[in-house]
Amino acid sequence: ELTSRELDVLRQIAAGKPNREIAEALVISEKTVKSHITNILNKLHLEDRTQAAVYAWQEGIIRRKKG
Asked: What domains lie within the chain, and their CATH numbers?
């Protein structure tokens, strides 16, 4: 199960943000972002951030804004 911070990072990945922007948005270092991404991929048995983004959309972790 992902931590709340890992979910925050996953939402940012699914929104297409690069590590630098994720770090700025969450007020953490890029190294910490990379660590969270590694944990996310391992926990979800995924290969890369593209698969993580697809997972987030498929599982409803991120939704398209209406309007």
From this structure: 4-58 (1.10.10.10)
CB of 26 closer than 8 Å to CB of 33:
yes
The model's pLDDT over 9-46, given as tens digits with 9 standing for 90+, comes to: 999 999 999 999 999 999 999 999 999 999 999 999 99
DSSP symbol at 27: T
CB 6 within 8 A of CB 39: yes
Helix or strand (DSSP H, E) at 59: none
- What is the pTM for the complete model shown? 0.91
Rounded Cα distance between 65 and 48, Å, is: 25
